[in-house]
């Protein structure tokens, strides 16, 4: 099977696509994968690090001032012809897009050439390019049950966000490797790979006072903010990390994760069946992190605190609630399974094979 992936712009679009590509290659090394994305975004370097071929397009995100939007949208439509050339050269059996503006160009080209096309929406709010194409593609794959209503189409399959099969094989981290105990309640706080200045300002004062013999804390602050902690003194039950390469294993080992509500973060948390307190970022397109969080708390599968001037007090209150109310904690933990989609990559792979004409 030959598959073109159109994905990128952000890690939220790209990493689920890479997870699915890993699964596809793991099932059959004869499967061929090509990624298409922007020359100017994350995918231009990250895809090659994962060992996949990448075809770049000179497309920039149509955001910012009016001129940038005009240029961006013009590039998006003009690159359809370039994408048709890529398709004719690679000869894919099926194309799958994971959102972003280069995804639009490639899927529109695939539709023009009558190639089976699928879309994947990671968030609870459908992105602009996915919304335009939703009714035209063969299937729109989602992780949330409100997508069909937004797109007003019946071709939606709720199969979840792919997470790497390598992640599912990982064991829980040994907390003793971090100078902590494996027998104490552990709270992990992580605000994405880059961290958050707003949250970091709160954490400096919050963690200094957390000398609790029954709980322990790990804060992954991001490399940009790690210098802020070198001259500060924290209790022995608090560990500050710049980053963590083995995050999936660490999430599995912790009792509570305080996290952003991006699609990739939520996929890892729910797949690990870990209780979470979500702090949605206010600085993302369509406020989709808030909408992701709202969809999850509607099923009582997490708690949420706003990123405002009451963050420290509210976060402390919610952590204390979860660690003191065993029934509440266990109920949320049970409900995370509704969003785990452990076999997401497998089901999407089977759908790709079906659309490509291969036997499943």
CATH architectural category of the largest domain: 3-Layer(aba) Sandwich
Number of helices: 14
Radius of gyration: 21 Å
Largest sheet: 7 strands, parallel
Separation, N- and C-terminal Cα atoms: 12 Å
Summarize the structure.
With 360 residues, the chain is α/β, with parallel strands linked by helices.
What does this structure look like?
- With 360 residues, the chain is an alpha/beta fold.
- It has two domains: 2-161 and 343-356, Rossmann fold; 168-339, 3-Layer(aba) Sandwich (Rossmann fold), CATH 3.40.50.2000.
- The chain contains 14 helices and 13 strands.
- The protein has helices at 11-27, 43-49, 66-90, 101-112, 128-133, 147-151, 165-169, 197-208, 247-253, 263-271, 288-297, 311-324, 326-335, 344-356, and strands spanning 2-6, 32-38, 53-57, 94-97, 117-121, 139-142, 156-158, 185-190, 215-220, 238-241, 256-259, 275-278, 303-304.
- The strands form two sheets. It has a seven-stranded parallel sheet with strand order 3-2-1-4-5-6-7, sandwiched between helices. It has a six-stranded parallel sheet with strand order 10-9-8-11-12-13, sandwiched between helices.
- The chain is elongated.
- It starts with a strand and ends with a helix.
- The model has no long low-confidence stretch (mean pLDDT 87).
